[in-house]
Amino acid sequence: MPYIKIEKGVVVEKILDSRKGYVEVDNTVICGMVTKDKGLTFDSPEPVVNPDQYKLNRAEQYPSVGDQLDAFWKEVNYRRLQGESFTQDADNMLGKILAVKSGNPKPKDK
Questions:
Q1: pTM metric for this prediction
Q2: 75 is a domain residue
Q3: 39 found inside a domain
Q4: Bridge partner residues of 36 (DSSP)
Q5: C-beta of residue 2 within 8 angstroms of C-beta of residue 14
Q6: Which residue among 5, 18, 81, 89 sits deepest, i.e. has the most Cβ atoms within 10 Å of its Cβ?
């Protein structure tokens, strides 16, 4: 029979020989299981949660950076045509982007 070490209610080590501080259990107990009701009944291991998982999920679901920038600069151009003023840097960048679009027009069928 295996022996386990429990720290803060979680099985942290499983060995085959008896040692001081280890408890004998059956073969179904695995590291990561948590003690239930302060006894030797165990629940499944706590799920490992990546605290940054939301960032990965968002990155996979966001539109491409190119699509985001295209929408942004279309809005800036629209506002400029409506008479809104922008910093010189933003106005210069918009001019460069419009020049690229003008030099590489989208095909009529798209």
A1: 0.52
A2: yes
A3: yes
A4: 41
A5: yes
A6: 5
